[in-house]
Amino acid sequence: MNGQAMRVKGRKALVTGSSRGLGRAIALALADEGADVAINYLANRAQAEEVAEAIRVKGRQTVVCQADVSDYGQVTAMKKTVEQSLGTIDILVNNAGVISDKTFVKMDHVQWQRVLSVNLDGTFNCSKLFVEGMLAMGWGRIVNMSAFTGQAGNFGQANYAAAAAGIMAFTKSLAKELASKGITVNAVAPGFVETDMVRTIPERVLKRLIDEIPMKRLGRPEEVARAVIFLVSSDGDYITGQEISINGGLLV
């Protein structure tokens, strides 16, 4: 940290979907700022262990947990494992998400349901279970990852956009309920960021998207992570129920 004070020193964090992409960047940023960080993954344990090892090198504690956040039972089991290793979680970043793009006419119910289950139900499941400890402590920070498409919509992403918009409405509602309890709830809405998810976009489509971004480039995971750190540190103590857009100037 180049001699600067660590902004979340001593805190215990969980970042869902943190084996790669935005989640990985957020987990490492939290560790840099002094937090112990639990890593959650769905399928690739090797990637999750790599992130965990990077956290240990920074001198922080960590634990790796496999769980599908759309499954309430699996999240319950993850909570037990995390608390046994790190103690009560006071920072929760609901980052896990999936895409399954198709035009609405071609989209089937399975594609619709899977995206809503992971992205929206997963945010509910983790918030529901981990807020208990925050309420007991009288302090907590929840950051939900939304998306630009939830603000503007996007061709072929009716499911993803609906989930993102739902996450924002959930964030605002939960923030109102928990504000008097010492718990803030905010959202971060990235635009198009350099992640594996974005790299699946065909090159010609991606070029068109970048042309529409006023800054003429994709975002970087570290830029999104810095916003999360701001919200969970003392810098964000009087901020709740808000959505920070990180999209290079894209307008709804």
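^ that was protein a. below is b, sequence first then the tokens
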Amino acid sequence: MNIPGALYHVMSRCLPMYKLFSDDADREYFLSLLAFCLLRSGCRCYAWVLMDNHYHLVLRSGNEELWRLMKPLQMRYAQYHGRKNGRRGPLFMDRYKSIVTQDQNYLLELIRYVHLNPIRAGICRNLMELKQYRWSGHRNLMLETSEAFQDVKSVLLRFGTNDHDAKKLYCEFLEQGLAGSVADDDLITLVRKNNEGTGSGRKVSSWVIGDREFVAKALLKAEANRLRISRFEKEGAELTQIALEMAKHFKVPVESLRIRQRGGAASDARKVFAYGACRVYQAPSAMVCEYLGVGSAAVSAMAIRGKLIAEKSGIFK
């Protein structure tokens, strides 16, 4: 769901066969892209962390919709990653995941969840080590020098009116999370499930969370901005799931749908996949292009041919 001015938790993971960030040069390039795209889109970043195969962001969108930030960020980084490693095709698993979240009750919980990722993953042993970890927004909150793109001031003001007291209370807040003295609330439980791919996209709570009034207003905003909730989002579909169904129907390996080829069952499955993903489920075209490793014109051509094949086979009936 895209709502201008909303608070989001965003997570994106690369395909299992790759490492999203292989070295510091990768991480520095990604952060330079993030800074550029934040400035261009008018979004603000409150928290972030880069892990080996995924990243997390806590963002507030500007007047533009969230995809204005995320699409160029992921597309340009994928292009860089491909050039550097001499490969073609998609890098990320489907589309980035985003949850519109109520600011009043959940912002600090999200910041804590995101910034504690390196400790929970065993990269850092404690908050002292996390303070020196270059690839997390926690370091920016604690040190005088920081990445210019992160809105450090707004975060610290949530904890105190002067930096010294704010940092102290912020660290105590993180310690509570590490000590287990605070049970995971519904938001963090949902975030974890969505990150792991076990959450149900069929529930409204998979893409907007807050009290009843907040959820109702968010849905009205989405409708007012003519931001269509597609079948893809309503039914919680994923491109990998659609691809598996196509492979099963045409009796071909699912990997063959990503390979360009002429004629045969795999070629038909690839075309019907393009049609099903784009036209039946209304998945974002950028996601389908990235999954298939081709441009939008090629996907449109495949979808046209795929429609004829699908109608003959009755696969979507």
